[in-house]
Design a protein that fits this description.
Elements lengths: L3 E3 L7 E5 L4 H13 L3 E5 L5 H14 L7 E4 L2 E4 L3 H10 L5
Length: 97
Amino acid sequence: MAATHVPGKNQGVIMLYALSTCPWCRKTRQFLNDQGVEYSYIDVDQTRGQEREDTLNEVRKYNPALSFPVLVVNGKAIVGFKEDEIREALKGAPAKG
């Protein structure tokens, strides 16, 4: 899976599975940018072939319904744009570096 890396403050492993056309996905990405945290993301609808299958299988582990966005913060999945839950997960994440 070819994820895009966004540099920032290391709060552990943060991965966003999104759709390029999804307004809630854009809000989640903007929120992470505003928080200044390091994260990676994949726009699942921009993937093709085996990469898409592999990515969807990864997302299903966290959210079998395959709704987006799916934000994984150090193994904890947050489905949808839930600002309070994201803040809480980031607060509990160990800052590194």
